[in-house]
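User: Assemble these into one structure.

Assistant: Restating your components, then the assembled model:
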Amino acid sequence: NAGVTQTPKFRILKIGQSMTLQCTQDMNHNYMYWYRQDPGMGLKLIYYSVGAGITDKGEVPNGYNVSRSTTEDFPLRLELAAPSQTSVYFCASRSGQGGQPQHFGDGTRLSIL
Amino acid sequence: RKEVEQDPGPFNVPEGATVAFNCTYSNSASQSFFWYRQDCRKEPKLLMSVYSSGNEDGRFTAQLNRASQYISLLIRDSKLSDSATYLCVVTLSGGSYIPTFGRGTSLIVHP
């Protein structure tokens, strides 16, 4: 049972480059989330989705974009990488049923140099 | 007042000790409560859900106090491997999509 899978696990980008962080889940969850976590800090919500074709901004959406064309996939796009986007990125999903917890992927560690 | 508050610690305890963490939440409409464990630079992992009547899983006991709006986590017989950050997570009722995370409480268990 794969759960939530994120790729790549590590990436180094140059300032101004673009990339897509991939996230896929095999639990048929409606809700999916992207978080970033800076060293010693808590999780900050970037974007979330409540189903295919529906996305919304979280706490820190600037510099990122998302899409949700299928239930399984929720990619996060960085268009013009900046050093401030150096962070660990976690994707999570949960069932739409009440009272269900989130399940997290094991993260993408991204450095912008 | 923050929506979900935790004492960041660190809590420094010897092996075998009992340690308890509290987490307070501000919105009385909160309905779902969870404790997660996060190891350094790893993903949060669900430790346990918190039910109204309280629940236990081995050495871990979680309780909910709706009147005072807090949840607690008790760890008995602490192990070195329990060293981690413990995150409190709260979700509102009524179709709220976004769980609210506390900043976490750091636990260090030493020999």
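Chain A is about 0% helix and 50% strand.
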